[in-house]
Amino acid sequence: MTTPLIIDTDPGVDDAFALALAAASPEVDLIGVTTVFGNVSPELTTRNALRVLALLDREDVPVAAGAARPLVHPQPHVSKAHGSDGLSGFADTLPEPTRGPDPRDAVTLLKDLLTAADRPVTIAPIGPLTNIALLLAAHPGLRAKIARLVVMGGGIRGGNVTAAAEFNLWCDPEAARRVLVGAEVPVTLVPMDLTRRCAVSAAWLAELGAASEVGAKLVGLTPDYLATYRKFLGWDGMALHDAVAVAEAVRPGILATRRFPVDVECAFGPGRGGLLVDERLEHADRPGIDVAVDADLDGLRGFVLDRLRALGVRQ
Questions:
Q1: Region (Disordered) spans which residues (predicted)?
Q2: Could you give the CA distance from residue 96 to residue 195 in angstroms, rounded to a whole number?
């Protein structure tokens, strides 16, 4: 039996790969996509999600636009790593969608999909956590319908947008704290410490690009993102942060996890948006969440590549 899956996203190059992985995985049934501000404006994240699903021949999946700003304080800026349109300036190389976004807002679509589901739903939030915080606050009665949240975000040993904060948590620290601290539903957090270690090489991308037209289109979205990561990694490759989280949603246990109490810094100052993971043994009995700490890196890269290569040629 497949697991119903909803992806909450701000596409984003690695988000596009994550959506493709979900579409290529028979273990899950992608029943909805919700979008949020983040890597680019909410208008562009929604358009990008619709275009990626059109590429994947999955326009049956409803896409609902969500939060355009954080819960409390404005977001200072958007990511530069993904280019001007979120897809390295190549969003227009993807098919034009034949349908627009769902008329419902993201939280309403989440509510309706959870209510209608005949078994618990996995939600993979791979952008800022604003939509998920709003869902949990507005509809507490639906918690039992959520099998777990598989969240991409945070950095145990520091961040990428500041010394302390990873981008997704930094975008809306108050929402992240609402979702992760004293979690009301099961949570698996996939931090950038691990996703960065899972970075793929230019040769990996070339292999995907040669496999099919869909693979070539996905690889064609990467130039700006790849250029950023060449500088960051020091070698010719890039991190597929969000696809690593979706891999865990697709195949539970592909990432090794440990349970830790966590917090998110919401004060103004250099630590804002930082993830605080309490690794002290004396606090191991405190409530916590599952944090992904390790993986068979080559096995994970191979798993993602095999799934994406199987997407086939778009007619």
A1: 74-101
A2: 31
The arithmetic mean of pLDDT across residues 198-213, rounded, is 97
Active site amino acids: 241
Among the four given CATH numbers 2.40.50.140, 3.30.750.24, 1.20.120.80, 3.90.245.10, the one describing domain 3-309: 3.90.245.10
> Would you state the pLDDT for residue 314?
40
Token couple for 258: 């440990």
User: The pTM is what?
Assistant: 0.96
Residue pointed to by tokens 């769902």: 102
Parse the chain into domains and list their residue ranges.
Answer: 3-309
Position 284 confidence tier, pLDDT thresholds 50, 70, 90: low
Cβ neighbours, 10 Å, residue 294: 12
DSSP states along 187-234: EEEE-HHHHHHT-EEHHHHHHHHHH-HHHHHHHTT-HHHHHHHHHHHS
